[in-house]
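Protein modeling request. Please complete all fields; requests missing the sequence field cannot be processed.
Requester role: graduate student
Desired output: 3D structure, token encoding
Chains: 1
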Amino acid sequence: MYKSFLILISICILLAGCTTTYQITPKQSFKLKNGRIVLSSTLEHSSIKIELASLIYKDSTPLVIAAYAKINTPCDDDSCIFSIENISVDSNGFSPSLIPARLILNSSLNFVDTLQSFSIPTPLFYSPRGPDLIYSPFFPFGGFFFISSRWDDSYFRESQFSRRLLFTHYLKPSNLDSKDFSGGFVAINLLGLDKKDRDLSIKVKIDSDVHSILLHFSPIK
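Delivered output (221 residues):
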């Protein structure tokens, strides 16, 4: 599946114009916190928060969200563990995949813009020489680069650092408690999303609770 994803991205770059920009419209009330969009849900046993850094999305990249959860009453069994396995995504019968943390680390993606949108600073890897390179900064899962001998490795070091930083803040299995939210980033592979208006349903299962966050994607002409 991931090899197919890479091939499709490469074809899109060669055709120059495959990328679609979407306006995201939450289908429920939300709050703004430090420039981020915060959508929340509280059920009998648990509470969750989903954060977006922007309501504009380009489908040449994974959609990165921040997902947090906590329980409303103390719990000590496996039903109180929060991980990427608790999250599922659906869009009118199309089921986007969630990208595992290890695959993020081993990809060629550059998450600098995403991290900065979430107010996570990244260092500037300055290059004194101009690039002689044809590239897209969003090559998932080991993409192709056309590079000359004059190019130094500043862009690649920036990309690598951004992946490590995202990996550090990625959602990994953790025990929930009733005092504080626990969670992290999740990257959603939306390659194959219909270019027409779509609803994206994000479901988070905690114990017997199933939280649902609904987002509407409409292409920007």
